[in-house]
Automatic annotation (TrEMBL):
The keyword Signal applies. It comes from Antrihabitans stalagmiti. This is Uncharacterized protein. The lineage of its organism: Bacteria, Bacillati, Actinomycetota, Actinomycetes, Mycobacteriales. It comes from the Bacteria. Residues 1-28 form the signal peptide. Keywords: Signal.
């Protein structure tokens, strides 16, 4: 949630610097946020949703679970869409309802997304995450690099931009199709996603983000976005802060 701070005294020069910084951040989607996380531009995004079953025969074909939550469907509160003929299907979202699902009251933030880096289920990622994840040196992550029950990715905030629309969401899964693309996810050179499926998609977004960003397709692979990680303190209030997901990893039973 946004952190509000009260300034009791400041010099005129300091105040002017603060005002200029605030205006710069508000006016440009490319302005640095806290740690100067790099922007990833013109990235194809598909849409996914809790309860979607894309391919029941594929290991990663069901959104009943996520990379970080073995009970995602129940913990979210059910189908993030409409159940028709026994299938959980997506639905259009409206600003009038803050882009929230219309059939359930979600228990977690409906503004969620995935990125192709699974930091707990891929052994090489688990071993190397302390070196590649930019916030690994923050106090809550120090000393937890080998803890498989703790994710460096889950619940992290991402800023997304499409045209003149800017929305925010939390990482709650890994994908699409690739789970080890550290160069794209964390690199500073705007690398293209390694994934070649779904029109070379570099992330999936939830129905809430689909509506908030004004996607052309309800469920397609033509829409493109710019995105960057953002620290929680830099996330402004909006429909994405009505419910903030803070739940830990729910591991899969052996």
């Amino acid at each position: 949630m946004p952190v509000l701070r009260t300034v009791t005294s400041v010099s005129s020069a300091g105040l002017m610097a603060m005002v200029m910084l605030a205006c710069s951040s508000a006016d440009s989607a490319g302005s640095p946020d806290s740690k100067n996380y790099p922007w990833h531009t013109n990235i194809v995004s598909t849409t996914f949703w809790v309860g979607e079953v894309l391919d029941p025969n594929a290991v990663d074909g069901s959104q009943m679970v996520s990379a970080y939550d073995a009970n995602w469907y129940a913990n979210f509160g059910g189908c993030d869409g409409v159940v028709a003929d026994g299938r959980c299907q997506t639905e259009p979202r409206s600003a009038q309802n803050d882009y929230f699902p219309t059939r359930i009251t979600p228990l977690q933030n409906p503004f969620y997304l995935d990125l192709p880096y699974d930091d707990i289920n891929i052994e090489a990622n688990l071993r190397g995450r302390a070196e590649v994840v930019p916030w690994a040196d923050e106090p809550e992550y120090l000393g937890r690099a080998e803890d498989r029950s703790f994710s460096f990715m889950k619940n992290r905030w991402v800023k997304l931009k499409k045209g003149d629309r800017i929305c925010f969401g939390q990482v709650q899964d890994a994908g699409p199709a690739r789970y080890d693309d550290a160069r794209y996810v964390f690199g500073a050179d705007d690398a293209r996603p390694a994934n070649t499926r779904f029109n070379n998609a570099g992330l999936d977004v939830s129905p809430a983000l689909n509506g908030c960003l004004g996607f052309q397709d309800l469920d397609g692979s033509r829409d493109r976005v710019d995105w960057a990680f953002v620290d929680e303190a830099a996330v402004p209030e909006g429909p994405w802060t009505r419910i903030v997901t803070t739940s830990p990893v729910v591991v899969f039973s052996e």
